[in-house]
Write a structure and sequence with these properties.
homodimer; 210 residues; alpha/beta; Rossmann fold; five-stranded parallel beta sheet; 11% strand
């Protein structure tokens, strides 16, 4: 079955977003990351920054009180918590994007949301702490917290959010089709492996058996 | 860092052993599966069949009573349970094999036992239930249990054994460097991906950054 939709789940700092962009460039298909945030923002009435900061975070977080209903759209949340409201819109936006045609989607539990699409290839990108710590400092600069603490906090939020909305374990290999350690393989090779898998999925089925 | 030792952890029926043999053949390096069992048998005094059936199974299994001390080697178990005794020998054999030179090692928690070797590439091979069920029936025939039950039981034993001796979660992507779904990628492509990663690890480091 030809794989047309590629989802990239990733540990913070692993380079998963870069892998996704490289895959999209090499395959010549759209790349949804910020675009996804913007569309969820439009449909939810929340500011893009709020969506970006909270869409993958723990639903138990204090940020997710009902008090955060978007201005100007009273009543649209139908009694849902902010987190559940955002989740519903996120599902709907991701399902619509996948319907539009081949693309790469980064984060936002897209592997789960698109789990029933046979033309989707689900990937998970991760790396050891040292590799990720160096990357986030280079990319986002220093902060008052150690890079390790920042990584642990962000990963924990993504893990809790994933567990809450999918009932599955974040980073469990069987939730994906390909999991790659960029710390060992490098970002470029990881993108190559995913592209090759997509390209081979276009060939007629052929399998050697023992 | 050049990868010389490849460990293959695998779900039952996923074709992981075949992937391992293909990788060993393509790279021209030894393949340890049955050979590992035989060496553990020699060093432990247990029959190879006993080692094969129990070396990756739950330490709480009824098979693992102290009554199973090997004949002719009284006292060598030093008060260890059969499971712990086998585990110690398994660790020692795997560490020795890795010292001997490049190789592919299938199963037996080798990813954990060799986790500190920087020249080791750790892989996990898995597939969906339908793919694996078809394979085990083709390979091992029917039995009085459904293929799904046989898969679940065997996976559970491996999972419990892994958890008990390593404190880690079996199949959690971050324990490995590459995890591949043979149900989607196929056995041959999975072997190719691993071979390519080994061959690229021999090239001088080169990494593009965003």
């Amino acid at each position: 079955m030809e794989k047309k939709i590629i989802t990239i789940s990733r540990e913070f700092g692993s380079g998963g977003r870069t892998v996704g962009r490289m895959v999209a460039d090499k395959l010549g298909i759209p790349f949804y990351d910020k675009e996804l945030v913007d569309q969820i923002a439009v449909e939810s009435g929340f500011a893009p920054k709020f969506v970006e900061e909270n869409g993958e975070h723990s639903p138990g977080s204090s940020l997710f009180s009902y008090a955060f209903a978007p201005q100007g759209v009273p009543g649209v949340m139908n009694g849902l918590s902010t987190a559940d409201f955002l989740w519903n819109i996120q599902c709907s936006v991701i399902l619509q994007l996948a319907e539009k045609g081949p693309c790469v989607i980064v984060g936002r539990n897209a592997d789960y949301i698109l789990k029933d699409r046979e033309d989707a290839l689900h990937t998970f990108i991760f790396a050891d702490m040292a590799f990720r710590a160096e990357r986030i400092v280079k990319r986002y600069g220093e902060s008052d917290k150690s890079p390790e603490t920042r990584l642990q906090e962000k990963d924990k939020r993504r893990r809790v959010n994933y567990q809450h909305y999918t009932g599955r374990t974040w980073g469990q290999a069987q939730n994906y089709n390909i999991c790659l350690d960029t710390g060992v393989l490098g970002i470029e090779q990881s993108a190559d492996i995913i592209c090759q898998a997509v390209m081979r999925s276009r060939e007629p089925a052929k399998e050697s058996e023992e």
